[in-house]
Write a structure and sequence with these properties.
Oligomer: single chain
Keywords: DNA-binding, Phosphoprotein
Strand order of the largest sheet: 2-1-3-4-5
Protein name: Response regulator
InterPro entries: CheY-like_superfamily (IPR011006), NreC/VraR/RcsB-like_REC (IPR058245), Sig_transdc_resp-reg_C-effctor (IPR016032), Sig_transdc_resp-reg_receiver (IPR001789), Tscrpt_reg_LuxR_C (IPR000792), WalR-like (IPR039420)
CATH superfamily of the largest domain: Response regulator
Number of strands: 5
Radius of gyration: 18 Å
Distance between the termini: 36 Å
Helix content: 40-55%
Pfam families: GerE, Response_reg
CATH architecture of the largest domain: 3-Layer(aba) Sandwich
Low-confidence stretches: none
Largest sheet: 5 strands, parallel
Length: about 220
């Protein structure tokens, strides 16, 4: 069961998505709100068993916008995965989204099937990228001067690079373990070491690092 929280300042949109997800047997909406401040307040009062695995939220909201909500969520619950569901699907938003460590960015006119596909991928792998996302990311990186650097003592080992490449291919920990003939626990240990070395907070951060360091090249343009 994937626990979902919804936040959007349009009541009808929140209600509509809640009804849509209620028909899915493996998804449970544990919180739905239209105000960022109330959302964070209610999150802080939730029982541990009700804390969502994934938060779906919009960007442009008042009085607190989605980016500020994400920053506060990150400080409160580092393990929660975040999906931005917005009509403002632009390159500069995607770049800022990745800096904040959100897991996916999908337009509001997405279909039910696509939304469930994204939720499933984010829940399993921590990341969901479309071809269009990659195209915008390529453009974003071409205009960015920031290049990640590691000191020699922090350099990723050959095995860590193998794990990182498979993470970038959106493989689950079990799939990585099967491909590399190691245990899931070892995969998770490598993942944590990679995050510690590159200073990433989650899967999105280490994928961005891999792309900027040419460990994982972006797919070629169609």
């Amino acid at each position: 069961m994937v626990k979902i929280a919804l936040l959007d300042d349009e009541f009808l949109f929140v209600e509509g998505v809640s009804v849509l997800l209620a028909s899915c047997p493996n998804v449970k909406v544990t919180l739905a709100e239209t105000d960022g401040l109330r959302f964070l307040s209610r999150m802080s009062e939730m029982l541990v068993d009700d804390i969502p695995d994934i938060v779906l939220l919009d960007i442009e909201m008042k009085p607190m916008d989605g980016f500020e909500v994400i920053e506060r969520l990150r400080s409160m619950y580092s393990e929660i995965k975040i999906i931005i569901l917005s009509s403002h699907y632009r390159q500069n938003v995607l770049g800022h989204m990745m800096k904040l460590g959100t897991s996916a960015f999908i337009p509001k006119n997405t279909t039910k099937a696509q939304l469930l596909e994204v939720i499933d991928a984010v829940h399993k792998n921590g990341l969901y990228f479309t071809t269009r996302d990659y195209e915008m990311l390529r453009s974003y990186l071409n205009t960015s001067n920031r290049r990640p650097m590691l000191s020699p003592k922090d350099k990723l080992s050959s095995r860590e690079q193998d794990v990182l490449k498979l993470i970038c291919q959106e493989c689950t920990s079990q799939e990585i373990a099967d491909k590399l003939y190691i245990s899931v626990r070892t995969v998770e240990s490598h993942r944590q070491h990679i995050m510690d070395k590159v200073g990433a907070k989650n899967t999105v951060g280490i994928v961005l690092y891999a792309i900027m360091s040419d460990i994982h090249p972006l797919p070629p343009m169609a």
